Amino acid sequence: MKKRIKVASLFIAAGLLAACGNSEETTTAPKKEKTEQTPETKTDAGIAATTLKDELTIFSSIKAELDKAKEGQAIDWKMVTTSYESKLKGGVSTAAPEIEEVISSALAGVESKELDENIARQLVDKGIQSYFYKLQKATQATAEEAVAAGKTDEATAALNDIKDMSETVFIPTAEKRDASYGFKNEEAIAQAISSGLTAQEEAITAKNVADFNVAKQLTDKSIYRSFYLAALGYAQKIEEGVKAGTDEKELQMEQAEGYGFLLAIEESLAGGDEEAVAKLKDLYDFSKTKPEGVQFKEVESLFAKALTAKVDGYHEETQEALEKKEIDTARVEAMEANMFVIAMKPTLENRLGKEQASTVLSDANDWYALVEKGDVKAEETGKKVIDALDPLN
């Protein structure tokens, strides 16, 4: 019998509920995400010479150099530019051309003295982090294909790459969000990422494609949650800073930070609402919007509109799969939907109140339990979640 991952443990790790149902996962077939686009993997011959280890090492050295500004020290921009162009630019250009343009423009702006150094360092730092997020998604696809083909060694190698990226890039960022939002224990995003990676590893060992695909959503969407909450949090900081009379350059730096994190998830968000994402980009773009034009309530509403639309879509796809008795597909769709609901927890509490937010999360858990049983009546419970989110759309 194949080793199975209990869905309760995944939901606890994701911070959905402290206590969930105890039903176990069933097996599923590999499935490509419908609304999440997978970036291209690095295939260019000129890029192949640069390993992921090289990229992560260079990122760490670049970040350390950029962070000197926090201590009032001068940044060696020549070192940053040379390091980026020699080891990172090729990969970023291939996987995320728009991000590469942002980073290169920031570096050029500093060189020409047309861009404030603090704004530039945020665009470079967060731009590279966004690149690694897209690379993570591509690597997840590689791992999934390997598991499905029974190539355990290849799947493990790909997962190890994701672990390396998580250790260097994603978990440190998640820990900052955990501190900002007061997430601890089962609510901690960093813990959810680690739990997802462990569950993926167990699924590879068990050669269970179904569990791998479900666990993949815990890992990926927890990283997503971290980037989303980072961008959202900067909107609040900007509004508060304007009221406090904070220097405009500092506020523009925070806009740049929000913009950099948004780059990682904008394509996914656009799958929910393109207009909302276009507006978000304009608000975080300091060349288009002054800091006083960034209103937290508006930003929160735009994010919620896009994320709610994505949840709606996954609920529809889950029900379609259930009616076709494709339980395998339904489980993955349902997990994706719930991970987005978890991401919106702070907004749910802000807009609906803590009690109703708790009810939504509980209903989401109950819905998943019915989905994994293949019960078409899951639609009734799922409708409670959708109806509760409707005011946010």
Automatic annotation (TrEMBL):
State where composition is biased (Basic and acidic residues). 30-43
Task: Print the keywords alphabetically.
Answer: Signal
Q: Where is this region: Disordered?
A: 23-43
Q: Which residues form the signal peptide?
A: 1-18
Superkingdom is Bacteria
Q: Which PROSITE patterns match?
A: PROKAR_LIPOPROTEIN
The answer to whether UniProt assigns keyword Signal to this entry is yes
Q: What name appears for this protein in its UniProt entry?
A: Lipoprotein
